[in-house]
Amino acid sequence: MTGTSAKGPPGRVTISYRLRWAGMSLLREFFCLLPAPMALSLGERAGDLLRRLLPRKRAILRDNLQKSDLGLRGEREIGNFETKVFRHFGRLGAEVMRLKVLSDPEIARMVPVEGLEHFRSEFGKGRGVILLTGHIGNWEYSLRRIALEAPGKVHPVIRRIKSPMVHDFVDDHRRKYAKGESILADSGVKTLVRALSKGHVLIVLLDQNAGGEREGVFVPFFGRMACTYASLARFSLLMDLPVIPAASIRKPDGSFQGMIRPPISPMKDLPPEEAVFRQTALYTKALEDLVRCSPEQWIWIHRRWKTRPPDEKKVDPLER
């Protein structure tokens, strides 16, 4: 198995930053030294611990379930689902840490992909590719797997993590071991256009709450209107490029199934704002369909429906 040593923290940082970076590095080495079954089982146990330590996240999860149309009923069913969600994220953390010791052939074997012809067809046109995904399954495996198919660079388009140390560590780890060079979402359109002009791949995650109508549009997601970033639809129209939904879902045996869906083309024949709304609705529906393949592998602990339509009367107990 192969792995390249990640660079250390940037030069001008605090002692606290360096100590936390060292702690994260040691944790990564610990998970990499363990046998895979033990490391992944330990990740799930960590998920159980986080479930007990994060009551507010549990409250958000249950509120989301109550307001969605997923159809869970009864405390036992909801409690089992809650346990699976936290175990998924614990295991996900262990899987991501262990990217360092996974070779490209191992990733290819672990993540077979259905619908790869959709990606290859668009990539073959030489215009670059826009992939759509969300916090579904193991999105870092998706990144590493698609990098095996793309001769050029692969760029996840990300938002900055609040903690500078965590942001830098995750970005460094992703670049070294998931083969992705991140682009910040607020870095400007020119940066994205430049990447596509070089035949690179952009990966956009579109399943988080948008802050308001200036940033997003309200479209259905699990039976409830969700404020969703409109920037991807606008960029697709600008570039006249389709958007390809994709995800990697963990199977019961611990392997993964990569899924690439047919491209969603820009609706150039519609008025711009109507096209943005309809495309965003199609993107969100595609993501919902992928989540429904294994619902417990999605971020139910995120306040996806926090921003509400201005004409909706709400009583939100989580606002207190």
Structure description:
- The protein is an alpha/beta fold.
- The protein has one domain.
- It has eleven helices and nine strands.
- α1 runs parallel beside α8, α2 packs across α4 and α10 packs across α11.
- The longest helix is centred in the N-terminal third of the chain and has 23 residues.
Question: Any key phrases for this structure?
Answer:
alpha/beta, disordered N terminus, two-stranded antiparallel ribbon, 7-stranded mixed beta sheet, globular, disordered C terminus, 320 residues
Oligomer: single chain
- Low-pLDDT parts are 1-7, 315-320
- Elements, N to C (H/E): HHHHHEHEHEHEHEEEHEEH
Q: N- to C-terminal separation? A: 50 Å
Largest sheet: 7 strands, mixed
Give a count of the beta strands, DSSP E runs of length 2 or more.
Answer: 9
Please give the radius of gyration in angstroms.
20 Å
Report strand %: 5-15%
Write the layout of secondary structure elements.
Blueprint: H1 15-33, H2 36-53, H3 55-67, H4 75-97, H5 104-110, E1 113-114, H6 116-123, E2 129-133, H7 139-147, E3 154-158, H8 164-178, E4 183-184, H9 189-197, E5 201-205, E6 216-221, E7 224-229, H10 231-239, E8 243-250, E9 256-260, H11 272-291
Parallel strand pairs: 1-9, 2-5, 2-8, 3-4, 3-5
Antiparallel strand pairs: 6-7, 8-9
